[in-house]
Write a structure and sequence with these properties.
With 233 residues, the chain is α/β, with parallel strands linked by helices. The chain has helices at 13-31, 50-58, 69-78, 97-103, 113-119, 148-156, 176-193, 208-213, 223-226; strands at 40-44, 63-66, 85-88, 106-110, 126-131, 161-167, 199-201, 218-221.
Length: 233
């Protein structure tokens, strides 16, 4: 697991929340018959200042997530000395794709052909997930289930993208375990055409245990670790 479970001497509220989540992830993994080492915890720091990210780094966090391009770009530049692994987890405009490539190690929200084309590069690779929309609302982001395989094919054929797997957000009106079961089944479909795309980005503060039970490998956890978000500036 990317965020180490080793104890820390700090007793700050942030350290306590991080420790509690790490323990919860360990427990959920073992309950599912999995090793905690299989899991990568991405701490989502939306609206929080760069100083909080720096404190997280001091607590052993290396994977940080953002879902607004302008905020992510600024934080990555300010904290370049920490050599963090930045994950872009929000909806990404095609016109911002090349800028996002400059700081993001992983883009979790590839959901349409135009974005794939905008992310194309003949010079370097970026890791990515194809985002699946688990609702009937196209505004939620993500590719429709019927279009999953064609989009995966397009990613595989596009230079500069390395497909890790599938990503999704559980709908608020569905039991998380059932939603994540659908993600797991979608992942199995993806692996039939992309055998190396074995990862699943799923699970947030309130439902990560269900995601782990259904095979999630990357957890995107915000408020359970960072505390309540400040109001956006």
């Amino acid at each position: 697991m990317t965020t180490s479970t080793s104890p820390t001497s700090s007793s700050s509220p942030l350290a306590e929340r991080l420790g509690a989540v790490r323990a919860g992830i360990d427990d959920a993994a073992r309950a599912a018959g999995r090793s905690p080492e299989e899991l990568t915890t991405i701490v989502v720091t939306k609206f929080h200042p760069a100083s909080l990210v720096r404190e997280l780094a001091g607590l052993g966090v290396h994977d940080v997530g953002e879902n607004r391009h302008q905020e992510a770009q600024a934080k990555a530049a300010e904290l370049a000395d920490l050599h963090l692994r930045w994950h872009f987890v929000g909806q990404l405009q095609s016109k911002k794709a090349r800028q996002a490539r400059a700081y993001a190690s992983v883009i979790h929200s590839v959901d349409r052909v135009s974005l794939v084309d905008a992310l194309r590069s003949d010079e370097s690779d970026v890791d990515c997930f194809v985002q699946l929309n688990l609702t009937d609302d196209p505004a939620r982001g993500g590719v429709a289930d019927r279009d999953l395989e064609p989009l995966v094919d397009h990613v595989l054929a596009t230079p500069g993208l390395r497909l890790l797997g599938v990503m999704a957000v559980a709908p608020i009106d569905e039991q998380p375990r059932r939603a994540f079961e659908r993600v797991r089944l979608a992942s199995e479909r993806v692996r039939r055409i992309a055998p190396d795309a074995v990862s699943i980005s799923a699970g947030m503060s309130q439902d990560y245990a269900d995601a782990i039970a259904e095979g999630a490998t990357h957890l995107r956890i915000g408020t359970a670790i960072t505390g309540n978000r400040p109001q956006p500036g």
